[in-house]
TrEMBL record:
InterPro entries: DUF3149. It comes from Crenobacter cavernae. This is DUF3149 domain-containing protein. Keywords: Membrane, Transmembrane, Transmembrane helix. Pfam families: DUF3149. It comes from the Bacteria.
Length: 55
């Protein structure tokens, strides 16, 4: 608990915490975007292979 008080008692601590939160958010967004694009590519590949098999 003492560490939290020390961290939030100065501008440097607050900026450090903000930096950590923003960096974690960016990592989360990049992972979400990667998974989304991978699923879209897989779905497009399935659709394309389905069309080729029907011909």
């Amino acid at each position: 608990m003492e560490l939290w008080k020390e961290l939030l008692s100065s501008y440097v601590g607050i900026l450090s915490l903000l930096t950590i939160v923003v960096a974690a958010g960016m990592v989360g967004y990049c992972v979400w975007l990667f998974v989304k694009k991978a699923r879209e590519a897989e779905e497009a590949e399935r659709r394309a292979s389905g069309r080729l098999a029907a011909r």
